[in-house]
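Structure tokens please, single chain.
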Amino acid sequence: MKKLVINLNRCPQNHPCPAVRVCPIGALSQKGYAAPEINYNVCISCGKCVNFCPMRAFKLQ
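Here you go.
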């Protein structure tokens, strides 16, 4: 199974991450404007955040 990763160089970390709210199981969280964190215990690698992120910071690999 592919694993979700975040490219911190592409993530601006200056606003609420729009991809956090599209995760169907709540595997993404964000503290303040920091880069989102992934809870790998619940992430199902569906790719919704990958497709939604306007900066293309998320990747399944």
